[in-house]
Amino acid sequence: MKINFVARLNDSPLVIVPIFKNAATLALLDRLAVDFKQTPFLLRRDFKAEAKECLLLYPEQGSDRKVFLLGLGAEPSLGDVLAIFRYFAFTQRARLTQDVVLDWRVSTIGATSTTYLTAAVNGLCLGGYQVGVHKADSLFNIHPFKNASAMLTICAQHPYLQLVAQKGVETAEAQMRLMDLVNAPSNFKQPRVLGEWAEASGKQFGYKTTIFDKKKCIEKGLHALLSVNQGSPEEPRFIIMEYLPTGITNKKLTKIGLVGKGVTFDTGGISIKSSTNMHKMKSDMGGAAAVLGTIELAARLQLPVHLIGIIPSTENMVDGKATKPGDVVGSYLGKTIEVIDTDAEGRIILADGLSYMVKNYNPDTLIDLATLTGSVIGTLGYHCAGLFTNDDALAARLTLAGELTGEKVWRLPLWDAYAEDLKSDIADLSNFSGKPMAGAISAAKFLEVFTDRHPHWAHLDIAGMAFSATELSPQQSATAYGIRLLTAYIELIINDL
Length: 497
Known about the structure:
Elements: E1 2-6, E2 14-20, H1 25-35, H2 40-46, E3 54-57, E4 66-73, H3 78-91, E5 99-103, H4 106-109, H5 117-126, E6 151-155, H6 161-183, H7 191-205, E7 208-212, H8 214-220, H9 223-229, E8 237-243, E9 255-260, E10 262-266, H10 286-301, E11 306-316, E12 328-329, E13 337-338, H11 346-361, E14 365-370, H12 374-380, E15 385-389, H13 392-405, E16 409-411, E17 429-430, H14 439-449, E18 457-461, E19 467-468, E20 477-478, H15 483-494
Parallel strand pairs: 1-6, 2-4, 2-5, 5-6, 9-11, 9-14, 10-11, 13-17, 14-18, 15-16
Antiparallel strand pairs: 3-4, 7-8, 8-11, 12-13, 15-18, 19-20
Helix pairs in contact: 1-2, 3-5, 5-6, 6-10, 7-10, 9-11, 10-15, 11-14, 13-15
């Protein structure tokens, strides 16, 4: 979607007027009644500015010009605004056209509301997302906003808002590209496909990629990743991405390392999952998607930060060669792992990703994301990700980023007492406690070993957030969780907040 900017509201055929619910709402409705030839009493009666409330007006008799009043509710968060505009664009798709005007004048939306514009535009674009790309009629049901010539015109007094709106478009485009990847069936996204995706993105947006195939993984000693891959006919990939902004030579940039779990399909291995809902395990690379999307978005926006992204990627399949419960496998760090449960494979491949990052790049901050445990869903549901860190400042920034974006996190303990659950008689540690409690915490304690005591590390268990229910799909689908969260965190670092 392209962005245009005008200072005055013209006679555009389709206008969206977002309205907050506050003390000024009634006076605003009276003015809009005059502007759009409505009866003030009826407008006050029919529209209360509740969140997601939508009222369609036809200002001129005999004309197909449409004006949508869109309620934002009282004191919405940025995440609320995004969700409201996404819901509007999706549910009103049959009434929308590819040319839309968003009325963002101070006299309409409010003088202090400019911070919401990125979220509003982001939501409008996401509302055009289409899940069913593999349906035979998918080409005939394209949302108007997905048309190559679609134009969103922002009516506002301040020209700089065009850049603010453009950020919303860039963010949505990065999100939707990764939503496509997470929603793709596993036969369309083998580990090599993730590597090819990263390479193509790097070439297009200007960041460096290095991809290790199976032979290179063996040479590098990525034994943990290789152990999970043993049961799959598809070779693993170890994907490394490095983003540095162009034109910045005299400033020391903060270096942030991001590691994402890239299991493109998870059967559970020999410790096989139940067939119920196993088809959803195509989403087990949601952490990888968050890293891919964050690197790409940073490059799109040319953020002044040094980012390293690492994705260990494999399938976890059942085969005669598959790693068995009770086997002991090695790792890049040199620690040995007793595999108690082959369905706790995500932490095993992340072990190599984390230790490779620390040894070879030594980032100032290290963050990993993974659809790691069902335990975190049992604890937090589908409302936020589990956050584990011993760095209070890092926890505070990630929590604030979550509040700003609506991609919330909640801190859980990482006490040393939980390390007792990972003791092994025959290896340095085991990958699973075997206990029916504190599963997300013991998984985090396992990962902590492979950070080699990095002082600024955080683990995000996003199992309940990467693949969830939204209005975009009757079933669960990709959410692109983590991209906006991490980007907001990076911007807090840049601004030293």
